[in-house]
Sequence to fold (731 residues):
Amino acid sequence: MPTTVCPSANAVSVTANVIGGTASYTYAWTGATGSTANVSVTIPATCGNVNVKIDITDAKGCTATNDADITVADNVAPTGTAPAGTNNINACFVNATTMPVGVPAFNPTAAAAGYTDNCAGTVTATLTGTSVTGNNCSWTGTYTFKVSDACGNELTNQTIVYTGGDKTAPTGTAPSGTTNINACFVDASTMPLGVPAFATLNAATGYTDNCGGTVTATLTGTTVTGTNCSWTGTYTFKVSDACNNELTNQTIVYTGGDKSAPTFGLSGTTANPDEAGNCVFEVPDLESLVISKADNCTAAGSLIYTQTPPAGTVITADQVVSITLTDACGNVSAAQTVTVQYGNPNPTANITNITGTTILTCATTSISVTATGGGTYAWDNGLGSAAAATITNTGTYTVTVTAANGCTDTESITITDDKTKPTAGITPSGTELSCSVPSITLTPNGVGSYVWLDGTATITEPGDYRLEVTAANGCKDTATVTITKDNTPNTKLPLNKPASVCENAAFELPALTDADTYYEYSINGIDWLRLNDRMRSAADNHWYRVNSSLPCVHYSDSVKPDIVPPITGLILEYENISAQSHQDKEMVTPGQTVQVKLNMDNLGNYQWNDGKKDTTTVDNTLTIRLYKDRKITVVADNNGCPSEPAEIDIPVIWPTAITPYTKDGYNDDFIPEINCHIIIFNRYGQKVSEGNNGWDGTYRGALADPGTYMYVVNLPDGEVKKGTIEVVKIK
Fold:
């Protein structure tokens, strides 16, 4: 029988050894299971002692007893190997006690898996510490743990080790390069002028390190492709973190080309044309005038010359030629000009019409012309070889002009004629004058202008009257009409008396009953006037009569109008109806109301003028509010005749001082009743008061200091009144 076993809750075999006695034994066990020599004893899972007792009886009935203790105990720590940690983990260092991201958390089950108990019991792993050493680039993380069995036996200082560091290259975006730079191509490895040099700090600004470390940009190459006209420059660089993780093949790209136009000068600004023969002249090739050619990228000899118009263009007058240079990239210079001086080598025939018309008429029987533009002249149709010629017949006339160099030019003029006569005619309004027909109107007929050879278009005497008609072409025709006269007189007509007339006023004379007869009016036998003219009555005894200017009628009746005399003795007076009790009723201050009264009433209408507008009323009084001096006038009506005007001047007195300190009701405020916008300033130009209710003499809640103040008042009629007011303190 074992004396020491491990706690297990399993059974162990126990055998009883018999010595002596008579065979055929029986066994009685205590603490064991079974009735044979060999039995099973259950071992508990905890440490302690298990007592096993055996009673053995032999065939003779003799019994022997024995017992033994089985010690349940485990003093041996577990044995085994810790799991291997992961190496080369891509993670950043955190701190001395925190595992980097990516390191698995401590797993007790996995940690205990490599260990066994001598008693085959359960093994438990317990974390005892976590430590991390190193930096972002290389770190070692260690889990320290112990392994225990069920009896508390411990295997300590077991470790699982993880290693790693920052394996991630920086991330980000390269800065943008500048585009459309105006510069020339240099070579495949030299950046053109104007491209910034590679700047490591600027290149690195767009990148970050996953561990928050410093990022460094390093130039790895410079390439330039293209031509002067269009090139691309590329900086290739890598970006490294503190752990030398690199992001390679990063680029900053610049583009550009030649954007500058060539420049040049000219050795002259004028040139002579080329003669192509047959009196034809052309624009010459002016490239030889171009000097001091220059371009930033293209060699002077490779610049393309252009002139407009091109050489060989035929000209007939001075020609301005535009010259430009174009470089290999198509940049065109500013244009400069050269004037090709034609110098009039060819004649230019012209015909000047001295007479100013090409039509021969009854008035224009010849046309004078003069040829210009050359040395000699030759006219056709018999006009000769002089520059000047006279044409008297219709047709087309051509002059050939020849210059000193033998070159010629021609010009023609065509002459026509118009000698058609007009047809004159006269249409009279009648053919006989009489007392009822004192005049006859003659109406001319025919196309053209008219001239009366005898008399005018209005006839008052008998006779023969001729009309001459002249057409636009100067041709003439005449016509004649005969007018007779009947002097039989008319009957006498009554004369109407005019209505009442205001003295010295204009009035209209009444019309006679026969509107078809021509009459003249007279005052006291003089000053003849036409019918219905207006005249003025000078006095009560004036009369008038009517006479006819024709010998057929004679009027001698006379009448005189009734004269209405004007009203005199009108007087205007006024009273200040808004005056305070202590004020004089005739004194008016700004904003007060005045009643103006005429000394006569019941005269009909009254036309008032208050200096601003006219008002017609049946009242002989006028009420008005005044702000400034005003002249008031009125005219009364007497049976439709106006009176002599009456007028009165009303002065408006603006206060010059106030006494706000006394508060006795006299001159306490400055024009409070005016109800106008008022601004008060002190002598320093500071605003003291502003409002529509006058000024109570205060400033900032207290009485203003005695002295002189300036005021500005906006009156209702839009005018502005300015002045000064004295604040007086009476002791």
